[in-house]
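Reply to dn_fold:

You asked what the input looked like. This is it:
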Amino acid sequence: MNKNLIIAGTEKAGTTALYLHLAKHPDVCASVVKETNFFRQNYTGELAKDGASYRRLFAGECKPGMVMLEASPGYLAEASDVAPRIAALLPDALLVFILREPAERLRSFFEHSRSQLKFSSDISYGQYVDACLAHEVHDAAVKPALSEWHLNGMRTGRYAELLIPFFEAFDRQRLLVVDYEALKTKSAEVTRRVCGFAGLNTAQIQEAQIEKANVTFSGRIEWVHRVAVHANRKLEFALRHRPALKRSLVTLYKKMNQQREGYDPTDTETQRKVREYYRGSNEALAKLLAPEFSMSWLQSGPGG
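and this is what came back:
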């Protein structure tokens, strides 16, 4: 009998880094690609009652007793559909949610999407925020060329309402909520918590700091960056379980074509809009998580 451990959210909160770290454990059978997205709306196949379709997404043979691990951070964003689907097929699944201060997560999500050429580099962060806000009230007057997924980017940070379907579908002890800040600063401690949650022997995984993954950076020469982004997508299957090779390739590429890593601070007005938007959600989240879980940024003042 295998356990199922799913890192179900959220985007731009260290899910890749945690997945790669846990995948090193000898008792973990990791999915072939990190994000199977099996339970999301864009999965068009029929969910097999025996789970055979799901098991085929994992590397090799998952021996009895091993923990089957995947990380699809988009699950949280589509909670109302995904939570009951997971519960129906994997009622004993264990789910981990890494939550990042929502204003920071939104900016990271925007910059990463832009660096991955998901939309035009001409769209500023302020314009993106205005487009998301207009989308929520169905205002067609402000609508740049963005996908529905990106237009819903702000809503993805309203964690309280997105966690509720999972809290309703699973017993509380099957859910673990992790603070992104703790993952960054106390990764060994967080790893031990997750391993204990999944019933894994913590002595069999390295105690070293979790290595960063998917750090946002922009390319100096645009056409070269386009080729690199395309190659990265095509080689996802081959590179995901060869992290050392991928790190070497990314390091080499950065030396050749990186323009900058990170991004400029948010302008004051856009920051105000975003933090005001998340104020009520953060207050609801603090109540929802208490007393089992706490987020350091929930104590940092209005709006997170």
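The chain has a mean pLDDT of 84.
Hope that clears it up.
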